[in-house]
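COMPLEX REQUEST
Ligand: nicotinamide-adenine-dinucleotide
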Amino acid sequence: MSFYENTLELIEKAAKLMKLESNIKAVLTSPNRILEISIPVKMDDGNVKIFRGFRVQHSDIAGPYKGGIRYHEEVNMEEVKALATLMSFKCAVVGIPLGGGKGGIIVNPKKLSETELEKLTRGYTQRIAPFIGPEIDVPAPDVNTNEKIMAWIADEYSKVRQKNTIGVVTGKPLTFGGSMGRDKATAQGGFFILDALAQEHGLEPGKTRVVIQGFGNAGANAANILDKHGYNVIAVSDSKGGILCEKGVHPIKAQECKLQKGSLHACTIPDSKYEYHVSKDATCTKISNEELLELDCDVLILSALENQITKKNASKIKAKYILELANGPVDDAADTILEKAGVIIIPDILANAGGVTVSYFELVQNQMNYYWPKEEVEERLKAIMQQAWKHVRKRQEEHGCSMRMAAFIQAISRLSELMKVRGTI
Ligand code: NAD
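STATUS: Structure written out below.
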């Protein structure tokens, strides 16, 4: 089952549970607009290479489309449709006035020079410029895109429009209209949700063993935040493999080392030259990505890509709780297996909604041209995440269902209400 088919299946299941009108389901399963574009880039060697890009605008019933742009060799339209759909649901779970969109370019940015990457980003922006804007569609970073890329988009869009329009994207550098706390927002929001769960389930941070798949924006920040709150992060991984440090990973050192050496696998040996002791007892072992997922732990945080746990490995998962910082990391078949095994999954549209929530704050601050301190951003984020947790838990009790279904029901209820008020149905 593809990621998009899986997403449609989840909507179908939630619709049945809540006895949803078929008209509403029809609207929710049809993205409003789908763009497929070609971007010619004159490469450093003088040859022109054509890149393919996408932007899907799923729903703007709650507000401007909102969603990241992914640069990856395996991005495809089906994936972007799934991610755009999830964005509409995610914004609705946390109750922010934004819709759902997503974009992507088929590219491995690590194979491009900085000049080529900038040309590609500016070319993509020109192609989608007629369809985006602070009140229309507001992109953000996702896998392999970052604040530098967002700054190029904001600059290019402002040139096309002939006026400073920095609110066209979020996740920008602080010096160029970014919000305090946006860099860590996805992980921070996930932490507030995990904290609420820990309180309900009596989890003590010092006795809680955490494994994290993916060591980028979401994963590395999660490692750092959890470590600061006393959790024992025992293993982390990136696309090249994982490291297991029984006495705990040192997240900041691991981040520095990965930056310097290119992969976590290169960071198992203490390096006196750079003072890297990525493990708290200076011994770490290399493990494969498959092994990492199957480690004995309390909390498994998935912060890489979709479809990481499927029916192939679901029965081998030993974690008691799964926090989905990535979008769609557990497919529907795996969901069923894990639910039967008593594993509690905190679904993506709740767990990683902190990112889009602070993106919303960034948009608000850009429109006011007035900026909040870090503490204010964090407090506002905490309030929204805690409220979303309560709403989802209430739906779960009402329907006696999984947390994923409860989050979908919460989102669909809000979107249905908006459709009724606006006269869509
Ligand atoms: P990123 O590019 O910063 O990091 C991705 C990380 O995953 C990298 O460390 C990469 O090496 C690693 N990775 C890739 N394949 C892997 C594999 N098979 N096994 C282990 N590690 C692997 O991306 P990100 O922004 O951290 O996004 C990660 C996930 O979180 C995505 O699903 C994204 O959609 C989701 N997400 C991100 C944000 C955000 O604000 N950045 C918000 C919401 C959701």
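REMARKS: The chain has a mean pLDDT of 97. The domain at 33-165 is CATH 3.40.50.10860 (Rossmann fold).
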